Every structure is written in structure tokens, then in C-alpha cells.
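Subject: Sanity check before I submit

Could someone independently write out the C-alpha cells for this chain? I want to compare against mine line by line before I put it in a report. The sequence has 559 residues.
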Amino acid sequence: MRLSLSLSLIAALFAVNPALADALVENVDGVTLDERGDIVRFNGIVISPDGKVVKLLKRGDKRPEKLDWREDMKGRTVVPGMIDAHGHVMDLGFQALSLDLSGTKSLAEAQEAVRRYATSNDTRPWLTGGGWNQEVWGLGRFPTAAELDAATGDRPAWFTRADGHAGWANSAAMKAAGITAASKSPSGGRIEIVAGKPGGVFVDAAMALIERVVPQPTPRDRNAAFLKAQEILLSMGVTASADMGTTIEDWMTYRRMGDLGALRMRIMSYGKGVETALLLGGTGPTPWLYDDKLRMGGIKLMLDGALGSRGAWLKAPYSDAPGNSGLPMMTDAQLLNSIVRGSMDNFQIAVHAIGDRANQQILDAIDEVSDTYKGDRRWRIEHAQIVDPADLPRFGKHGIIASMQPTHQTSDRVMAEARLGPARLGGAYAWKSMLTNKSRLAFGSDYPVESPNPWVGWAVGFTRQDGAGQPFGGWRPEEAVSREQAWKAFTVDAAYAGFAEKKFGHLAPGLRADFVVVDRDPLLVSPTELRGTVVIETWVGGERVYRRGQAAVKVEAGR
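---
Independent answer below. Compare away.
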């Protein structure tokens, strides 16, 4: 009797929970890379119930008979989801929901944009936003508090520079922060001085002097910012991103989204400093959460600032600012201590280094610790924009990953020539040299500093030209990579850079079915046409998460 009851119970369980069959996405013009970077074409994808690729089907392959569902793509082009190896998820969302000054072409345009924003947001206690760039404005200097006062009046205002390494405050904001003529620049930062007193621009570590009094976003604000960022990324075909400098508040937002079922993209998180990563990971990297959508696996460290604000740490002074060599943010001892503390618990180390002196510093540190911390460490150097040619071969040692952003080159080239002079450009934005020296190359955008559009970044990778096709033949074209190498850096190697290559990064059996339906074959179109690629649908884990023209996911009110 007991045996028959047990069998009956088992039969009932199977009746209630029938085994799910595979699914089929068919009639596609599919193209992917394999792990070596070779091109693979297919016309169908068999997907398991847990959202993984079972098989890529080719012409003549037999189709499965028993399917849970079937999707006919009507011959459209399908490629793997694109991966941004260096972005800032929450910053992207907050910038999209505040005043974006990235489109302004002059100081006067920026002032008018701020004036309109202040009028339409008259209940906000502070006016905030970002994206300004004095180089684009042709100003030849930083803007001042007085110039911002003219647009804001007495309400505090704070707008970050396009690169995130400087901020522009008005007089009311400086007063709220207690900034006076006696205020001193902190270590790793600089208060810009005009006529003997703070002029309104705060560089790198000095930004904290203002930011400590700016009202902090609420959890609802953070939810909205994340959902906006996710919508932007999925609409551009970005299915996964490294999040560089994740704060505790950022992490809790991602966890809230995951718990609510609203986390649709994949995030490879790098904690903002050692303490953040240790607090959230405890004894080491977190496991993959939410069906491989979230993991904190590394630590982000900062060694210098950016070229635009003259904070990048150089071996010799700036050509256009004699006496200034940039802003080092960590001593050698501090850097080694941070690397050791993170490496002891197997966190991956990702270090921001833009100037040639900062890149030398992290290369020296990796040389010093690699004999102690062996194995597959995948040391990451973020940006690696200006490297002494003598140091380029060192990127091929110890499994170093060069995490670089193609559109920084097109945005910065004129400024870089002014900041550095022609003699120091030999190791600037040196993508091809990284591959030649056997470093792994991972591409991203550094959004919201640049647009997260990966199709633009891909085109820049093999042309080194901007949207207008300038300069003719490309800027320092010897450092261009091939079309396929650039694609690999945005997919296979961007996943590898985050220890995710066994989860996603290209389409192959056993990997997550993350793919994008686009309106053109990216391997067959011109660079200009590649830039204009339109994403029709985005799929993550075998689930459609974006369709052009369809509303994005929302979180219930009050959550």
C-alpha cells in the first residue's frame, strides 16, 4: 500500500510539473564568433528551458520535433549580445534622468540649457546633471561659478564634467559646502582657483567637497535610474556590462531589481575600493545570482584622473600646462596594500590608469605581487590610454587585460595632441600594440562618459575615425585592429575579462542564449552603416527583454 501511494504521488508530481521541452529560434541569418575569434554562421538556435544554447543549427540540420515554443525571425540577422567591458550603470541612469549637457556646443548653450532646466524643475532643492566639456565648447579654460550663477540664481547647482573627473559648482553650492578662499585642495584632487579664490570647478578628489552636501537619491530614485540605464543598454544591444566602482547603494539596487524579477541584463560588478568589495563579498567574490545576471567579482581602484581635466598622471608635465603632471591618487605602498588585500580573497583587481606614469605604477605593482599571487588572476588595467612605448611589452606579462574604450580615442584625439604634444603619442590608445604584445583586449565605452552604443565603438575599433570619417585614413591608423578583432573585444574577450566566458560572451552550446536581432549584417556593411545599426530585439537567457517600440519593464509603485 505504501509503495503504491508513493508511486501515485510521484506520478501526480510529474503531472503537475511536466518536463519542459527545448525551444527553437529559427529562420535567422545568424553569425557569431567562437572562443578563438573565428566566424561561425547558423540559421537556427535550439534553446534549453533554462535559457542556454543547446545547438546552433546550420542549413540541412534536422529541427527538433518536440518544442516548448518556436520563434520565426523571418530571415533577420542575429548576433551575440554585445558586452561593455567598462561602464557605470547607475551613473548612466542618473544622467539620463537629470540635465544632460553633453550636446551643448558652447558655454552659452550650456547656460541656456541650465536656465530652462531650472525653470521646469522649480521645486528641486538642487540642480544637478552632467556631460559638459569645455574642450567641445572651445572655451580654452574651465567655466566659473559666476557663469553658472547667471543661469541658476541662488539655487545650489552641481554639474559633473563629461569624464566624471571634475564638477562645476555655482556660488550657492560652494557656500552650502563651506568652500572659502581658505579651502585647500585634498590629496588626489584640485580646486581650480580664479582671481585668488575657488573658481567653481573641482577636480577628482576635490569633487567630494561639494558632493558631500548634494542631496542623496532615495531608493525609489535609484530604482528609476537603474531601469532607465537598463532600458538604454538593452535598446542598443548590450546584454552584459562590467559595472566599474559599484557602491553599496548600487549593489542593493541591483539586488532589489533581481528580487523583483526586473533585472534583465547581466552585470559584472567591481566594488568601489577594497572595503566595499569585502563588505559585500565577505570572504571573496559573490556567486552568480539570478540565473547568471549578477556577480561581484572584483575591486576597482583609481590611480589618476583624466586628460580632459589634466588629472591623468604623466611622466612629464602637460605640454599645455607646464608644471602640472597630473594627480596621482595612491602611493606605491597604498596601491600594493590594496592589491594584496583584495588578492588574498581572490577578488579580481581592476585599476584605472590613464597617464603614462599611472600605467607604469600599476605595471610595477603587478610585477611585484605576481610571484606571490599566482594562478589565473586576470589583472585588469582600465583605460591604458597613454602608455610609454617602453612599457607596452609589459602588458603581455602576467595575463594582463587591457580594458580600453575605442570612442575615447575619437573624442580625445585633438585634446590629446594638445595635452601631450606629438612626441608622446607613440603609446596613445594603442590597441593593436596590446594584441601584438599578447595582452588580452577588452572593449567598452566608459558610459556615460561616452555613449554606450557598441556599434559605434566597434566601427571606431577598426577605423580610428569619428562619425564624420575624420581624420582621413584614421588617427594613428597603425593602432587599428581588424573588424573581427574589435568584435571579439566587445564579446568573447569582454566576457573573459570578467571571468564570465563559461557563462556568456558568444553563442555556443552550454552558454547563455544572449543575442540581438539587428537590421543589417555587421560583417558585411561599411563602417558608416555599422554605426547606424538598429537593434530590433534583444534576448537574454532565451527570453526577449527588448523589442523596438515596446514599453520597457516597470517596477510597481512604492517598490
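---
OP: Matches mine. For the report I'm noting this point. The radius of gyration is 25 Å.
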